[in-house]
Amino acid sequence: MEPLRDFIRISSVVRLKVIIILAVCTASFGVWYIWGLSLNEIGQYISNYQNLAIWNLVRQPVYYPNFKDFRNDVMIGRLLLNKTKKYEIIIYGQMLAEMNKDVTTCPVNNCVIHNDTTRWINSDLILIPNRLFPSGKRPHQQAWVAFEYESALHTRFSDELNDKINFTASYRFDSTIRTPYGMYTPDEPKTDINKTIQLIKLEDIAKGKDRAVAWIVSNCNPKSPRNAYADELSKYITMPGINLPTSHLGFYALTLLICAFIHEAGHALAAVRERVRLHGFGIFVFGFYPGAFVDLNAADLQSLSPFCQLRVYCAGVWHNAVIAVISIIIFYLLPFLLSPGYHVGTGVGVTYLREDSVVTGHRGLALGDAITRVNSCPVNQQSDWFKCLEEAYIHPSGYCVSGAYLSMIDNKASVPRRSLSAVVSVNKLDENDSFESVSNQNKLNEDCCTVQSASTHLCFTYITPTKLSSTSRRYACLPARAVTERTSCNVTSDCGNLGAIRGNNNGIQSESLGVMSTRSMHCVVPSPPDNSTRLVRLVHNRHKAPAILFLGPLEDLVASIGVSDYVPRWPSILSPNLPSFLGLLCTYLFSLSGALVILNVVPCYALDGQWILKAFLDLCLPGILLSRPKRNMVFTVVLILGSSLLGLNLFLAILYLCLQANYSGGLPNSISPITSVNT
Predict the structure, then answer these.
(1) CA 579/CA 245 separation, integer angstroms
(2) Which residue, 339, 405, 566, 647, is most buried by CB atoms nearer than 10 A?
(3) Which of the residues 41, 88, 232, 264 is marked catalytic?
(4) Where is the Fucosyltransferase N-terminal domain (predicted)?
(5) pLDDT, tens digit, 9 for 90 and up, residues 118-151
(6) Do 650 and 535 share a structural domain?
(7) This prediction's pTM
C-alpha cells in the first residue's frame, strides 16, 4: 500500500504542477487589464486603463486625397484647369436621400452634386457606386470614379468599364479616395473632419505600447495577403499561448524538460550535501508535458535544522534562477560567440523562402544569401530591411537616364490606358473560385509596354520641359534591369544635369527645346499598374549573380522572405537558422526558468513554496511566537492566501486564453493570394 500511496501523492502533485506551469507559462501577465474593457449601452468603447476615455465609432468618414500627390495627373489637371466654374458631379444610380447633403466641410466647395442621369454627358465627374453606369462613350474631359464598399474580389463592375475608370474610391489604402467603413476616434467635443483625417495619418502609433493587439476582421477567409501580414506582425507582437506557432512546440517541450531536470537536480544535489538519503529520481512525460522528480527521505529531511531545510527547498529555485541569468547572457553574447561562423552587420541572411515565390529559382535567392541593399538603401541588419522596404513603398526610387537614351525609345508620350480589374494569383485559387467581376483573372492593366516586352521591360514616367517654362509627363517602355542599375534619384536635380531646362518666358521653339531635352538627364520612375505595386531591386552577396528585381505588392515580398541578422560565412556547411534556433532556445529558457522561479516561491499547497514557508517560519518566528500551534496557524493562513491568489490569477489567465481562443480560433494561418484593384 505504501508504494500506491506514494504513486497517488506524486501523481496529484504532478497534475497540479502541469496545470499551473502550463497556465503560468502560456498566459499573458496582462490579464488584469481585461477588467478595463467594456461597452456601454450605446456601443461606446470604455477603457479604464486610459482614464475612462470614451471612444466613438465614426461611421463613413471620407478622406479626400492630397491633390499635391496627383498634381501631375492629366485628368486632375483637366478638372482643375477652369477654377471659376461650378464642377458638376453626378452620383449615378443613387438616390440623394441616401447621402449626406452637408458638403460644407468639403475642401472643394465649388461643386454641384445631383443624381440626374440625363445630364451625365455634360458633367465633370461621375461617381459610380454600383453596377449602373452610362452606356455611352466617356467624354474626353470627364472623369469616372468607381465607388465600392466591398472588396475588389466581390465587385460586380462590368468589363465595359475597362479603359473608362480614372479613379477609385473604396476602403483600401491604395484607392485614390479612401472611404473606410469607420474608425474609432476620441469622443472630443467639436471634432472636425481635419482632426479626423490627422488621426489616420499618425505614424508609429504602436510606439511605447506593450499590451495585446486587437485584430478586427469581417471576413475570416480572405483572398488578400492580410493574413500573411498579420502572421509576420505577430512575430514581433507576441501573445504567448495564442500566436506561438506549432514549430515552437519542440522548443517548448525541450526547455520545459531542461528547466524541470535542473530544478530537481538542484534539490538532489542540496540533499546529498546535507546528507539526506536519496531514494530515487527520474524523468516522466505526463500527456505532452515533460518533467522530472526526486524522492528524498522525509525523516532525514525533517531532522535538519530550518536553515538546512531552506537550502534543500530553495535549491531548485536557485538553479532555475542561474539558468535564467545564463540564458539571457548567452542571448546577448550570441553575435560574439557565433562570430567565427557568422557575419553580423553586413546584411541580412535569408532564412526562409516561400516555395511558390517569384524570388526563388536558379537566378533567385537561396537560403544563406545576404541581402545587402534594397534599391539604393543599405541593409545592415533586420531593422534596416523593414525600414528600406517601407522607404521603397512610400518613396519609389527613380533612376537617372539621359535624354539621348530616351530619344531612341519609340514612345508617343501618351498617358497609359487604365482598366479596372483584379490581379489574382491563379495558382493559389481553389478550383471552385470564380469572380463575376473579372472576365479574365490574369488580365493586368494595360500600360505603355507591349505584351511582347512585358517580361523584360517596364513602363517608366518622367518629366520633360515644354513651352512657357512648364512641364509635361511622358512615358517610356524601358528595360527594367538596365535602368535599375543606373544611379538612383528622387527628383531630376539628383541626376546632376537638370532635366527641366528652362528658357525665357517669351517662348522657346519646340524644335530647339526637344534638342536641348535630349542632352539632359531625366529621373525616370516606374509606373506600376496599381498603387500598391512597387519595383524593388534586391542586391545580394552571391558572386556572378545579378540583382533580383521584384515587381508586386511589398507585403507579398515580406511574406515570401524570412531574414536574420546573421549571415553564414559558409552557407553550404552552416545552417542560416542556427542563430535563430539558439536565440529562441535562450528566450524560452529564460522565460520558463523565470516562470518556475516565480511559481515555486509562491506559498501554495503541493509546491516548493509550501515547504519554504514552513522552514522560513520555523527559522524566523521561534523568538516571536514560542507556541508551535500559533506558528502553524500563521503558516496555514499565509498558505491559504497564497494559494487563493495564485488560483485567482490562474483562473483569470485561463479565462483570458479562452476568450482569445474564441475570438481568434477561426482565423486561418495560410497565406492568401494577392488581390488588388488596378486603375
Answers:
(1) 18
(2) 566
(3) 264
(4) 88-182
(5) 888 888 888 877 667 787 778 877 888 887 777 6
(6) no
(7) 0.56
